[in-house]
Amino acid sequence: MTQFVSLTEPASTSLPVVDSNPIYVPSHHVLLKDLLAIHMVRTSTSNTIVSYHPPVERSKDSAERLQLLVLKTGDSPCWSEIFKKSNDPTFLVLVMFWYVLYGWDETFEVLGPHIDWLEVYIFETNDIYAAQELHKLRASLLYYQQLLQDFRKSLNFLRATPNPAMECNSRIGLTKEECKTSADLFAKEVDHLLLEVDRLESHTVMLSSQLKNLIDLAFAMDNIEERKAATRDSSTMKQISYLTMVFLPASFIASVFGMNVAEINPGSTESIKHYAEATVAISLITGWLLVAVQPHNTFHSPGSDVWRRLAWPLISLWKLCEVIFGLTEQRRGHWERKEFQSMV
Description:
It is found in: Cell membrane. By secondary structure, the protein is mainly alpha-helical. The chain is 66% helix and 8% strand.
């Protein structure tokens, strides 16, 4: 005798559950994250299977759907043949595992075309905000990969832990051939599930790689558009610079004739000499400060402090003198060697 109980947690519970935010796809499908926990108690006289389902917003409750599918398992010719050959109730747990795999298959059937649609959409619109949807899908795929690994561990546990009630010495009327047939059927079904898990994992890795390529493509196309925009801006600034150069001579002449100097405006107290002296002095001070406040400049050695940067004119002059005198000494030694060779 096997009892099957499905429990659904109330929506008002405070226990943390997986984020169930839906993923909407253009093909009028909605992907929802669901969880399934199974607990089975196996004895020689009775067996109890308890399935736990967190609350999920969907048209039909997942617990009711799972219970309906398990009850309809006997209508399948394949499972009917298995149940005829074996009385092991653990096969019902494998039925639930197949139910989970079918859910993953349906999810990937929807995700594949959706990712292809996103690829075409990015090519046509170059919408950088589509990268958010790609990140969301990739996070879901990574979550699926983790669930598949846990799924594989559960299958390996079932294969390594046979039902103790199915041992030949624990039940009257169970022959060795029946035990062997049941064990072989169970191992075969678990191997089929593991093969399906491998297929789903490879499909998940392929979709994840495709999403990563699409994310890189979205950012690359956005960078290309930004470079094009920067090129357009630089062309505009270049045109403005050309326009400024056209009016630069006129502006310079207007500034010269507007100076308050005696040579241009008789009766003024200032002269062009004073203007030139002030201009040269202020220009030198400005250049000296501009070079001094820049720590990474060709005039400064790496790690120079503030005082060394302020003294850059003297240091540069000293280096220039060293170069000049060094060249002079090299030339002098060269001529002395040449004169010595001619004398020899």
